[in-house]
Amino acid sequence: MAVDTDVLATAGRRRTFAVISHPDAGKSTLTEALALHAKVISEAGAVHGKAGRRGVVSDWMEMEQARGISITSAALQFGYRDCVVNLLDTPGHADFSEDTYRVLTAVDSAVMLLDAAKGLEPQTLKLFEVCRHRDIPVITFINKWDRPGRDALALCDELVERIGLQPMPLTWPVGEAGHFRGVVDLVTGEFVRYERTAGGATAAAEEHLDAERALAEVGPEWTRAVEEAELLAMSGGEFDRERYLKASATPVLFGAAVLNFGVRHLLDLLVSLAPPPSARPDAAGDERPVDAPFSGFVFKVQTGMDRAHRDQVAFARVCSGVFERGMVVTNATTGRPFATKYTQQMFGRERSTVDTAYPGDVIGLVNATALRVGDTLYAGKPAVRYPRLPTFTPTAFAVARPTDLGKAKQFRRGVEQLGAEGVVQVLTSDRRGDAAPVFAAVGPMQFEVAAHRMDAEFNSPIRLDHLPYRTVRRLLDPAQAPILNTGTRSEVLVRADGTLLALFLDEISLGMARRLNPDLALDDSLVDN
Ligand code: GDP
User: Which of 92, 215, 253, 320 reaches 20 to 30 Å from 374, CA-CA?
Assistant: First the structure.
């Protein structure tokens, strides 16, 4: 295959993003609709509902064979207009883990998907917090407008009031939620009328009417929509790309993914507005240009849960240069060479492997047991090392104990390794001692993976006793730890990086501790560093 040597131009046409949403907001539906509009899939797959996640992946794999789109279990890649779009998966439901947050270190922008009836929900808020921490530009898509929901202005107000993000609507719904007629395109002033197609199986038909005809055909609903949109524009919602790129304001679109309403508009925005890959700062703060030799970093490692197949795939985001399968790269963490012969071989049985990748793309390195989350890979000179990935405040805790006390050494080695890899966070305290460390995670899957690997890889099966703490804060002043280490409602534990985590049974216990000790120095941010 001819290698495109103009890396800058190719990278400039990449759009790498993730959808942040709460389960059930419609992420799978939107993903299918996006691929459908990208004319990669001529019919939306019949994948809906909860059993769906694995289904989506396997359906994608079938779709990719049939239509030539390239997919790993971490990313969906498709072409739209003159761009290549990489949609990175942010697992939800039971799969939610620190990996979900880490995916956001590998994107250039995000789409925040809201259910029109629910607005901002807990998981969306958490993922948004990570976007904010990293200054990731966010486009907001308000979904399910075909169903009764909240008022459009109220949803926009919620963005300002709860997360301080200024909405800049680019479309405005005509007809209240549940009576969706179409949208005002606030850039052209036209009425975009949507036509329902049977089951939403094909790209929705759109009709564009000028304002005069819109008024004649839909009357008061049109007038109301235009007035509402003007109201918002006057209160700071005027569109400004710079504010979007600086992540202080968000373009807003209204739609219904299941009917493909508004999806084309979203794709057009991603292509015209969302940032392409750009120079990335290394650990020393120096920026590595996009056209420097190949570099990338591992943001997710997937270990097979099947004992018989200890397969491990490391997913890396390409940051600079051209990746070619077979090239030997250096792992900056160990200084050792790493051969990339088996890039995505696990998907290669039935389809051709991806041989070349550009900045913004995700590559899956198979059997990469030497690779860890956060590792930097690079080719040639100069060397580069990207900053280590952020750590997140855990929400679930369990004491780990070896079931075979004769395996103390293996146990210690395994715990250390899993902690270093970020599979779980490992917490200790003088009170508890080293023999029974506390595993901390943001999702239950992490415990499963840790327990499985302790057994299968380190030959030290463990028992996990879950702790009842639900509320966590970082304790900023170590001298205050003794205050919280009395009684059974709170406890302070230390993470390997020295961070002190104050664990409370619930919000009530936290409130009590605060009332008793008004000087308690606690930080409640989700991202630790
Ligand atoms: P996910 O959990 O975020 O991936 O959500 P899904 O894509 O599985 O969607 C959850 C449910 O919402 C499914 O029953 C979808 O059919 C439904 N849904 C998704 N988008 C829309 C929409 O635009 N309108 C309506 N009425 N339902 C939708």
Answer: 92
